[in-house]
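As a warm-up, study this chain.
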Amino acid sequence: MAVRQKAVATLPTLMRAMGKGTPKSSNHQLLPSLRRAFSLYDQINLIDNVPEDQLRFQGYTDEGFTVNGVTYEGSVLCVGNLITSWSPKRFTEINADSLSMFRIVRPIPEILLLGCGRHIHQVDPEVKRFILSTGMKLEALDSRNAASTYNILNEEGRIVAAALLPYGVSS
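Now compare it with the structure written out below.
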């Protein structure tokens, strides 16, 4: 059991080390920073003091996201500090079935941030009903802003979920 705990404890470090070996894409863009000129962040920077096991979106491309130094291609689904690949490739593929894991996730996130790709789209009423039936709120945003909002809420210690299409998706 002690070996398993040690392996689990070293996993975030290993994932970061693996992510450093990936070549940087020329179209890689960093997410907007919360830091403002002449702010309290210059004296007390809570944003850089994120625990190692906490998910943090660091960047995005048209094809995917960089989270904790690891590049993920395609759509991702995040709940709390867990991340997994997500099957929808286009906004029209998002339905109650693609979000069905929220029927069993506990504790229930207070909000689902739906990253629609490059542009915000109106969410299908069936999807809205499904999300509301789970006890979550729903916020549809472009994927860049959904990732940034996820970082902020997660850093505040709130239970939050994000379902994000890559930023390059436009329909």
